[in-house]
Each structure stands twice: as structure tokens, then as C-alpha cells.
């Protein structure tokens, strides 16, 4: 398969030549455009646009302030299980790694939730590997129900599933899901995913549709930067986000910018994305997707996160643990999926935001407006 066999709504081929443009006048006009489209995005992704990084930063910051104020929404991830038989080359807990495996039982999950609740988070992402007997839909359903006793917004970053399964999770209290396509380049996708369910490119691609039809309200998408040509992947992420906005207008769509991180297995990126390129991509997406939350996790180093906060990025994770039982220490030692770079605690991180004139936001007002009864916690 080649990228050319992507569905029409996703295929960015028409605009790929613009990502190699050296026309500085066209690039400057794209950055300043009042109604930027895919044409302008492709120009802003070009290496030549790197010269205009300051101008892009100014535009991105102004747009971010207009739509999100001076706030940064905060959330934290919680690994339920690191059991996985997937064959992803870039992952520290792939099936062929000598990883220490663990899965939280209900008591351990409650300890984790109590630890997270003390940190005042109101948004959480529950993570697992691929579908496994240790962590299948019934386990997820029960874990979501427990987590929802402690926190308003319970999201998942797990394996693609059927619409009916998403509905089961929505009924248990799940509000949203994230699924990174990893790469939209099908040739690279096939190489990176050596075996397992994840080899099904289109099942993954269509998972956000099934989740929204199943009753979840938000979806997060993204590409794992470094696997394939990042300019191609960024154009596809843009197209995917626009498609979801158009077809599910009531849904919330967010975009993340994960980069390959060191992990057990030692995979190195074929298409490394340096910090300057990452900044350029974030600014370009912000200019072209003004109202969509853009997310940056603790995969990135403090200097990168500090620099991007409010300059396009509107949502960040903090105090993240990428091991199972990492918050309460209430589980046997387990292997992390990847190393995090920003290990600051909440006060340190919030102090940094305040020093930049930004307000950390733990509260997710959306759940209050959606269902006041849900806000009355026991
Ligand atoms: S990326 Fe996900 S599916 Fe792939 S090996 Fe890692 S945990 Fe499993």
C-alpha cells in the first residue's frame, strides 16, 4: 500500500508540493492570512518557513489568547495495564520486550485515584496496551466506573474497539478517547507495526468515528513525530481534524504532538523532529485550527514545554507517571512505555505558568454545563 490509497477526505497529495516551497512572499502571506486553509498550512510547514518562526509564534500566541485566554488546562495520565502483545517497533512495552508487566486491581486503582484526587485533577486519561485478556472491555468498563467516582472527565487512550464497546464505556462514565494514528503513511505504518491488531490501519483511522457514534464526546488525534515525513503527517492530522469537526460538529476534537522518546528497545526515529521543527508545526497547526485544543505532554523537556505554553499549546499533562501504579506506589515495579522528560511536580509547573502570566486550570467546566447532577459527587 502507498499513501496514495488514502481516502479522499484524508489524502493531502494536492498540497504536498507547498511543503517544499521556498517562496518567502507566499510563506509570509500564509502566516498572516485571515482564513488559512490547507494551502497555507503546507507553506507554513516548509523548511523555508523556519525563517519566519518569530512571526508564526506571534500569530499563534494571539490566536491562542483569543480562543483560550491566558489559561492552560491540565490533566494527568494513569496506566491501568502495560500488558501488550503488540509489535510496535518504537514501544518499550511491545510484546517482544522483556518488560515487567502489571495491571491494577480495583483496590490499587482506588489508591491511585485517591492520590490523583489529592492533586486536584479533574481530567484523567486511562491507558492500556492492545486488547489483552488482562485488560479487555469489561475491565475497562469497571475501571472507568471506579475512576468516575473520583473525577469528572475520564478519558481513555487504549485500543480501537467497536461502536457498541465504546457505548458500553460511555455508559460507565467515559467522556472521551485519544487514538494517535502514529503515522498516516501506510507504508511506514506497516513497517512499524510488525504484528497484532494494530496492523489494521483503517480500523485505527476510523476509531474516532466509532467512538463518537458510540456516545463519547471528545476525541484526540495525532501522529507520532519521527516515524515518517512529519510534513505529510501534519497535513493528514489537519485533514483528519477538519473531517471530524465537519462530521461530528458537537464533538470536541484535540490534537497532540508526541515525538519519539527513549524506550526499552532503543528505537531511533528515521525522521527526527528537532525542537525548532516541533515549534514550527505547533504554530502552523494553531494558526490553521484556531479553536482546537493543542496538547503537549511530559514527553517533552521543561524548556520546550515552557516555551510552547500559551504559544499555541492550550493543554498539558503534568505529574505524569508512565508505569502501572506510579502515583500511589501500590503495585509491583513495572516497565514504563517511554521515558518522560518533564518530571516537575505540580507546584513547580504551576509556578512556571504563573510567572509567564498564564493560569493553570484543573477544572473542566464542560462537565458542569453538560450534566449538573454529575457534579454532585458522593
Ligand atoms: S504502542 Fe501500544 S499497541 Fe504498540 S506495543 Fe506499545 S502499548 Fe502495545
The largest beta-sheet arranges its strands as: 1-2-3-4-5-6-7-8
Q: Assign the CATH superfamily.
A: Aldolase class I
What fold name goes in the CATH topology slot? TIM Barrel
| Total separate domains | 1
The SSE string, one letter per element, is HHHEHEHEHEHHHEHEHEHEHEHH
Task: Tell me the β content.
Answer: 5-15%
Kindly report the average pLDDT value: 91
User: Would you count the extended β strands for me?
Assistant: 9
Q: Strand pairing plus helix content: what structural class?
A: alpha/beta
- Overall morphology: globular
Radius of gyration: 20 Å
Count of alpha and pi helical runs: 15
Ends distance:
52 Å
Protein name: 2-iminoacetate synthase
InterPro entries: Aldolase_TIM, BATS_dom, rSAM, rSAM_sf, ThiH, ThiH/NoCL/HydG-like
Cofactor: [4Fe-4S] cluster
GO molecular function: 4 iron, 4 sulfur cluster binding; catalytic activity; iron ion binding
Keyword list:
378 residues, alpha/beta, TIM Barrel, eight-stranded parallel beta barrel, 9 strands, 11% strand, disordered C terminus, binds iron/sulfur cluster, 4 iron, 4 sulfur cluster binding, iron
Q: Topology, pairings included?
A:
Layout: H1 24-32, H2 38-45, H3 53-68, E1 71-79, H4 106-118, E2 123-127, H5 137-147, E3 153-157, H6 163-172, E4 174-178, H7 186-192, H8 201-205, H9 207-213, E5 218-222, H10 230-247, E6 252-256, H11 275-288, E7 294-296, H12 302-308, E8 315-317, H13 346-355, E9 359-361, H14 365-370, H15 372-375
Parallel strand pairs: 1-2, 1-8, 1-9, 2-3, 3-4, 4-5, 5-6, 6-7, 7-8
The structure holds iron/sulfur cluster.
Iron/sulfur cluster (SF4) is lined by residues 84, 86, 88, 91, 93-94, 129-130, 198, 337.
